[in-house]
Design goal:
Length: about 170
């Protein structure tokens, strides 16, 4: 792989905010906090790095989205909407920036056993129904997501543009 510079790669790793509440319990402050972290922050990072990428006619932007962007999960309305918006932002940026040799993609994992994953899915009673929907029968590991991000950041993925790639143990095909 060709080594990339800092201005050639932007990862949407600004953090992720989750509000585990149903639609009626989600207040505007929670909604705004989730949208600010999961949608506005990646937009601002990409917007600020894009001019340099355009100037050098090269760049990679990898947004970290979620399976919840496409598959509705109970008590995840603010999170799901923010990640769905991130996937559309990925497509819109692709439409604008691919002509400058900038590839923008999203990685959409299922539950990953990070500290946030443990918080949301650590209770075996809550996780059992979700695990039953994943043919591999387990949640993802951070290293599995990192490997996909590394690939999308490399020149091996130069022809992949505007995709929301699900990394979900088979959940999305069931």
């Amino acid at each position: 792989f060709k080594q990339k510079t800092a201005y050639e790669i932007s990862l949407g790793l600004v953090g992720s905010e989750m509000c585990i509440r149903d639609s009626l319990s989600t207040d505007i402050e929670d909604w705004e906090k989730v949208q600010a972290t999961n949608l506005r922050a990646p937009f601002m990072i990409a917007k600020n790095l894009a001019p340099k990428m355009i100037e050098q006619r090269s760049g990679k932007i990898v947004n970290i989205s979620s399976l919840a962007s496409e598959y509705a999960l109970e008590n995840h309305i603010a999170y799901s909407v923010s990640k769905s918006g991130l996937n559309m932002m990925t497509k819109a940026m692709t439409a604008e920036w691919t002509r400058y040799n900038i590839q923008v993609n999203s990685v959409c994992p299922t539950v990953v056993m990070t500290s946030m994953g443990e918080l949301a899915w650590g209770d075996p009673e809550k996780s059992a129904p979700m695990l039953a929907k994943i043919p591999l029968g387990r949640f993802g590991q951070p290293s599995e997501i990192a490997d996909l991000v590394l690939f999308l950041s490399s020149n091996a993925s130069d022809f992949i543009c505007g995709q929301s790639i699900f990394i979900d143990g088979g959940f999305s095909v069931m």
